[in-house]
Amino acid sequence: MNRLDGSISPYLQSHADQPVDWYPWGEEAFAEAARRDVPVLISIGYQTCHWCHVMSRETFSDPRIAESINKRMVAIKVDREEHPDVDAAYTAQAIAFGTTVGWPLNIFANAEGIAIFATTYLPPVPRMNQQAFGDVVVSISRAWTKKRSEVRAGTRELKLAVQEAALVNARTGVSKFPSRETLGGAAQDLGALEDTTYGGFGTGPKFPVAPALRFLLGREAAGDEEAGRVARRTLSNYAMSALRDPLEGGFFRYATNRDFSSPHYERMLDDNASLLSVYSRAGMVDIAAGIVTFLRDQLLVGEAFGSGQHSESILAGEVNEGGYYALDAAGRNTVEPPPVDGKIITGWNGLALEALAQAHRAGVPGDPGALGSDIATWLIAHHIKDDHSVIRLSRDGRASSAVASLGDYGGLALGLIELGMALGRADFVRHGQMLVDFVKKRGIDIDQDPILGASGLGWTPDIAEGSAPSGHSLLALASIRLASVCGDDTYREYAWFLLSPLMKQALSRPTGMGGVLAALSELTSTPRQVIVVGEEESPLSHTAREHHREGTLVMCVNTSQAQEFLDAGFSIFEGRTTPEVSTAYVCTEGVCELPVSDAVALAEQLAR
């Protein structure tokens, strides 16, 4: 029976006609496994994943292997981009088995959803030191039938291990802000991991670690010059490496080798949005402009961005990974580019809005502000519900039933707030505020999948922030912005509530939790607001925009925009909507300087 053909996910649709009797993620599959008393195969991947497609062609399209799977278990296909909560839960279980995590991630579980065994890509026949996937299927089935008591004992132990890990996460909260010295130490630890020969961090595989670079740039803005040098060297190395497509401007997901010479050619929205943000913050305008061009020309699907572009294309009638990118501009014009996954993911588009706001502030060519404004307007109309909840994703006008993640709320909230502040759009900031308020009221476990909840594994946050920030750090950053523009310190308290349980882990894992560190760095900096009301382009507004200091909010608006912000409830504009000439207002920790209308006087205030 074909159960996947009507899926919103193109990844699931690509498996719809296979001989494996796939189920989508849902209660029906687990009920069927319980009825038949067989294990469950949960195969997790995504549409732009090269090895997912290799395994699909080699293994899941093989009638013999498919027959064995159908006979011995119930098979579920999951798009990790549609169900990040499911992916995070089973990644945690795979790690508990000692499995090296990657995709495709194949989990064998009981009918309660608790893993029995986990593996990633396996070939259809034994190769080198790899088992054949079909042999694993048979072995799992035999253990299920003949060693059920041992299987049950193993699942109990795994469940306890995952629960204990969640409790450890919950117990790591601290009551004291990290000091300047503590954050400086984390920046030094990060710098010590720099590969001084080839650039980047570690040895390989190498992913662009945009959240960690954002943290380093933030420390630079707080006065740590060495942190800034490490960040800028890394960004330069990324830009000159094979990770970047020099013709179309986007960055590939990662490289397998230390010298970046062998990239995996998928180009993801979340990666490129995060990189656009840091390149814009670093003032590397040419590289940022290339990313804007890539996003607009390659990933724009209708009114918003798709989730990514495939690594594979069809060249000379055959599937080829990366061959398109080996062609020059003339050669690319003669072939179809790799296809784009048209899923519009709320949180990832929110990351793009935040990045386009930074690009607009940095003067990046390509009118990133207008592009962001169009996408924000569409997302507000189509991805935010009347009760201020959001949908996880849509495709071709159809919304997924998947539970929206904390990253969807945090990403979209931060994107709308940053874009609204950059463009003087009070309506965008207000919508972002409503999303933060929705999560504050409902609780951060809003993204609990009901099947995972029923399994008793509890809610475990996904705080892996190698290439893109987590929902916790995004929501915290959105809250910090709101505290400044609303004059309401309860938002700063909420940001600390989100970040404090993660602080110890982040300090010990700076490359993997850079988003939390970046948010902590902002939260612990002295809050300052710099507001310019009057002419949108003037020496006064230019001086304000050139001020880069950790913890400082800069907004330059005209008088009508200032009134719109005040009417929307943003108290920072109280008494500041109708100056006779362009005027700057500087306040630090609630103490305000005298208003000034001269750029030199403003520069003197900012230097204090």
- The proportion of strand residues reads 5-15%
Question: What CATH architecture of the largest domain do you see?
Answer: Alpha/alpha barrel
Tally of strands: 21
Query: How many helix segments?
Result: 26
**Helix content, binned percent:** 40-55%
User: What structural category arises from helix and sheet content?
Assistant: alpha+beta
Shape: globular
Describe it:
By secondary structure, this protein is an alpha+beta fold. It folds into 3 domains: 161 residues, 3-Layer(aba) Sandwich (Glutaredoxin), CATH 3.40.30; 311 residues, Glycosyltransferase; 83 residues, 3-Layer(aba) Sandwich (Glutaredoxin). The protein is 50% helix and 12% strand. It is built from 26 helices and 21 strands. A 5-stranded mixed beta sheet has the order 1-3-2-4-5, sandwiched between helices. Strands 19-18-20-21 form a 4-stranded mixed beta sheet, sandwiched between helices. Strand 20 and strand 21 form a beta hairpin. Helix 11 runs antiparallel to helix 12 and helix 24 runs parallel beside helix 26. The radius of gyration is 25 Å and the shape is globular. The model has no long low-confidence stretch (mean pLDDT 90).
